[in-house]
Design goal:
By secondary structure, this protein is of the alpha/beta class. It folds into 2 domains: about 200 residues, Rossmann fold (3-Layer(aba) Sandwich); about 200 residues, P-loop containing nucleotide triphosphate hydrolases (Rossmann fold). About 35% of the residues lie in helices and about 15% in strands. The strands form 2 sheets. Strands 3-4-2-5-6-1-7 form a 7-stranded parallel beta sheet, sandwiched between helices. The protein has a 6-stranded parallel beta sheet with strand order 8-13-12-9-11-10, sandwiched between helices. Helix 13 links the parallel strand 12 and strand 13. Helix 1 packs across helix 3 and helix 2 packs across helix 3. It starts with a helix and ends with a helix. About 40% of the residues are buried. GO terms for molecular function: 3'-5' DNA helicase activity; ATP binding; four-way junction helicase activity; hydrolase activity; nucleic acid binding.
Amino acid sequence: MDRYIDDVMKELGNLQLKEEQKTVIESILKKQDTLAVLPTGYGKSMCYIVPPLILNKEDFTKKHTSLVISPLKTLMKDQISSLREHNIPAYGLLEGAEKEDLAVTCIKDGLASILFASPEVILVKFWRDVITEVYKDRICVVAYDEAHCISEWGLDFRPEYGKVGLLQSIIEAPVLVLSATIRNDIRKDIDRALGLQQHSTKVVATLPDRSNIFLCTDKSSEQYEVELKWILEGVKQKKGKFAKTIIYVNSIALCETLYIWIHSELKSALYNGESIIQNRMVEMYHAHTDDESKQRIMDQFISIDSTIRVLVATVACGMGVNIPNIKLVVLWGLPSTLLLLWQETGRCVRDGSFGLMICYAFKRSVSKPCDICRSNRKFQCKCSSQEYLRSLVETEQCQRSYLLRHFLLDGMSRQLLPCNDFNCTENCHSCSCVKCKCCIVCRRKCECSKNMTKDEIIRTFLED
């Protein structure tokens, strides 16, 4: 591997591999099934991009291919474009076989080094036959990205994704399971679906900590007019300089209610300048938002100098969305699962700067059953993960450690959990104390914050 890795990384734009990425790639090259649980933004894609490129250099008499199964079509299209810019032949089975275009012809001719596929399309007989006839002996790894979607307990469960395990009966290649967040129960589902054995699967896992995000989950009333008023005041005062913010809610109806309230309160202050749509600082995004508006909002919100400062959204603004400079994530109501809470938290400050997650856990949201119990018409939910989520509101422990403990896989040491036993400088406007920047529980234990309200603590971060 070391003999060719430098050449491959130069071809990819002089990138540097992290130790965990190297470990995963080495495992794949040894033909070992591998589970890689690596944080968002860690470069998980390198784990399936690099192996065929190394093998092509080791054995130039044979072409090698990574087959990547992913539920995120938009992300796959972006990766295909990026790889082609580096002259790496990447193609996608993203639609049915009825359209014979250049990409389909190239795939059938066996030109792909990286072959992406959605779970729905890879199960179509036409494409399974192409895989068997053209790529079967060339595939060096079958990678399952966002693999938590395979499990009924995972976020964004996709029934079709749970059926892709039948690929293992026609392809003799190591399996790579990729996700940022997998719990033990989800792992068991994935192992069952893909026919993996825990004792023979290499596990490369890090806790999905985002130490650059201050965590604040606290009890609240359901009076958004009172609890969220500070956001409106901030938009009025700072306009285009207000921290870029997503407010996540649990339903389309609530999304519309909050948006209408903000609209009516801000009036002309809703706009940064002339009252035209291009100057609107608050927008709304949910599953029923029309496609044209979705595209307009995302194109605007993703830009560095976006006019949009606050986006009220449901989980429709979720997987595959990568907006680097979101400073503030507000969860109005406790999400339906701990996984969803952590995923929505992870939308914050992907650029590596410092940000905040504030969850308003009002009573009605705390008592809700989990998604699976609700779908089975069980309205009294006592699932262990849901009880764990509810107790987050009550705990006097560090909220970060409490949340991350839920993501410890079997065999992972509890010593990986963050420890905030640091002295406080008692000057939290410019404090480098880890405790002050950890979570609301740790911050309240600092001498400098004992007499501060939650809103006052939040403002110390937003004033920076």
